[in-house]
Design a protein that fits this description.
Blueprint (H helix, E strand, L loop, with lengths): L1 H26 L3 H22 L1
Helix pairs in contact: 1-2
Length: 53
């Protein structure tokens, strides 16, 4: 089903975004940069959780 495929693709994209921002936060040397990446990762995690409900 096209709707299921779209939801799966959205979930994959959110998981990738979450992972990238978490890794960027870990590698950041500036606390502000790390915080910004952690906030983006949290938003992606919340969206992913909502998508899976």
């Amino acid at each position: 089903d096209a709707g299921d495929d779209a939801l799966a693709a959205a979930g994959d994209a959110l998981a990738t975004t979450l992972r990238r921002h978490a890794e960027a936060a870990r590698e950041a040397t500036d606390p502000r940069t790390a915080t910004a990446h952690l906030e983006a990762a949290r938003e992606a995690a919340e969206a992913l959780a909502a998508l899976r409900r």
